[in-house]
Design brief:
This protein is 39% helix and 10% strand. It is α/β, with parallel strands linked by helices and 569 residues long.
Length: 569
């Protein structure tokens, strides 16, 4: 017998596993070696199932005949009858509240006094004008042309392959590094292979995300790029490297390796075999002590060569247009473009990047108000995914928040936005894959910003067809909209935040960087009044709204492109 049960975005069921016993997990993929069976006991079995988007079918149980026991039959009958007589327990009302099998209780606002003050707050016209005004020129401009012009060498040293793990923006940075490494080694770069991320589960390839023709054409004067390997090297695949030790695989590249390391360790492999496969490759090239032309090449890849495929660009442009030209409430049709070019598309909008998925919340080890059930579920997730090796888990929630190490909740980022001058009239685009806790988690944010939109609100099912269910493509759409927003703000640091911050710095666009340590301390103060909170937030963020910050040693060139890729004056 099969029962149909609706879930919140990240609700887990435990009853089925209690009836059936532990259920083995599928094999996990390793970016370096391919598919590897889990060896840790916690990776072999777990009692919760991870739901996907939409409905999930749960096979209640199937068992062999056992001698009848009155208590067992009675319990089984009750379990079978409950869904029939109390369906509301299994289907959350309005998809806002968790069912009895959820791994979290519906979170209530944690800062009621501040929320009340924010709902009553009114922003002056002068403050709004100041907030939405574009950044004034800061004396920096893009500067990525090589210092000297030279043609590609007639003889190359072989082929470089890279296998890239992580999410879209981590892979984006690794692609830039791969181009730089190929240049350092005077080798041909094979179009990078994108691994399937165990969290996002997206199998999209490079050419399904990025415009491969544009990529090759933009870099044709810098390096040699091949769409694939010639026939004599067709054996060099990720499957080949997954089943044994291979002389052509380089798996010892240290994090932030120097150019000399590649010349000493990878170039000999190219000389001997004509090909070298580097895996893992994320964050495997230093940001310091590299020739200026190599640094500028990395920025050229990032800001010019990596353009999205046409259908992603078209969808992104559609969303931006609709954000600037709001929907007419009465006719439910988008307002036609204004003929006057000075007024067309004049509507302002901000993008809020809210990464508040289960992976992020679990790794932070912070308490987000979902009760004991949530704390236990996140602790179990940490044990399964990272075998408990999470540094933050040794600290208390108060210690983590005081140090600014907890991602902002939707409620907290909403309070920050209001304190900075945004209000209920703000057009806010939510760039997010999945919010842990579902609609209940973002209810306070929606109260503060009723005009908040996301991809699914702004586009039809037909328009989303090519990207729906593909995390990397959806992230690409969010990235495109973030590129073109009047203001961008991220609720937590991470690869998306870093990538967008770098682009908007390069283009001199306003980006608000929350002061996590300041906000952590403010939110720990349960007696703080709204006026004091608002004043502290405003004062603490005056210099965090897009002002150029020069890259310091060890900092990422993709987050801080000045001075490597920008010229003063």
């Amino acid at each position: 017998m099969t029962y149909r049960i609706e879930f919140q975005q990240d609700a887990s069921l435990v009853l089925a596993s209690e009836i059936r016993g532990p259920k083995p997990l599928p094999a996990h993929r390793s970016p370096a070696t391919g598919i590897v069976p889990p060896s840790h006991p916690h990776l072999c079995h777990r009692r919760t199932t991870r739901p996907g988007d939409g409905d999930m079918l749960l096979r209640w149980w199937s068992y062999r005949y056992r001698p009848p026991q009155r208590s067992g039959l009675l319990a089984a009958s009750l379990v079978l009858l409950i869904p029939s007589f109390f369906p509301s327990l299994f289907i959350p009302l309005g998809r806002t509240f968790p069912s009895i099998f959820s791994e979290w209780n519906a979170p209530q606002p944690k800062h009621l006094s501040l929320l009340k003050g924010a709902l009553q707050h009114r922003t002056s016209i002068d403050k709004k004008s100041e907030l939405w005004a574009p950044l004034a020129p800061q004396g920096w401009k893009p500067c990525i042309r090589p210092s000297t012009t030279s043609s590609l060498p007639s003889k190359l040293n072989g082929f470089i392959q890279v296998f890239l793990d992580g999410g879209l923006n981590q892979q984006r940075m690794a692609i830039c590094d791969a181009v730089a490494v190929a240049k350092i080694l005077n080798a041909t770069l094979v179009i990078p292979h994108l691994e399937v991320n165990p969290v996002w589960q997206d199998m999209s390839s490079f050419e399904e995300i990025f415009d491969i023709d544009h990529f090759i054409d933009t870099l044709k004067e810098d390096i040699s790029i091949s769409r694939g390997l010639p026939k004599e090297y067709s054996w060099s695949t990720r499957e080949y490297y997954a089943i044994g030790i291979r002389a052509t695989r380089v798996k010892t590249a240290p994090v932030h390796a120097s150019a000399d390391w590649y010349l000493e360790n990878v170039l000999p492999v190219l000389y001997s075999y004509g090909i070298a496969a580097i895996s893992p490759f994320s964050h495997r090239l230093t940001f310091d002590n590299l020739p200026g032309d190599i640094q500028r090449l990395r920025c050229k890849v990032n800001f010019q060569a990596l353009a999205f495929v046409p259908h992603i660009t078209a969808l992104g442009q559609t969303l931006v247009k609709r954000l600037r030209n709001p929907i007419h409430e009465k006719t439910n049709e988008y307002i036609k473009e204004i003929q006057d070019e000075n007024e067309a598309g004049s509507g302002k909008f901000a993008v809020l990047h809210l990464r508040f998925d289960k992976d992020m919340t679990a790794h932070s080890s912070c308490d987000f108000g979902g009760g004991k059930a949530e704390r236990l579920a996140l602790a179990k997730y940490r044990q399964v995914i990272w075998q408990g090796r999470v540094l933050n888990s040794q600290f208390t929630d108060e210690e983590l928040r005081g140090q600014g190490r907890c991602p902002l909740t939707p409620e907290e980022i909403g309070l920050l936005l209001v304190a900075l001058g945004f209000d209920s009239s703000t057009r806010l685009f939510l760039a997010s894959h999945k919010v842990y806790g579902g609609e209940a988690r973002i209810s306070s944010l929606l109260k503060l910003f009723p005009l908040m939109e996301d991809k699914k609100n702004l586009a039809s099912e037909e328009e989303l067809m090519q990207v729906d269910g593909k995390a990397s493509l959806l992230a690409a759409v969010d990235y495109f909209v973030s590129m073109h927003a009047d203001i961008f703000i991220s609720a937590s640091p991470g690869n998306m935040h870093n990538a967008v911050l770098g682009y908007r710095t390069y283009k001199n666009l306003k980006t608000i960087r929350p002061s996590m340590s300041l906000l952590g301390q403010l939110f720990l103060n349960k007696s703080i009044e709204w006026s004091d909170f608002q004043q502290a937030v405003e004062s603490g963020h005056k210099t965090r709204q897009g002002q150029i910050r020069l890259r310091k040693p060890k900092q990422s060139i993709y987050t801080y492109p000045a001075t490597d890729c920008m010229c003063g004056g």
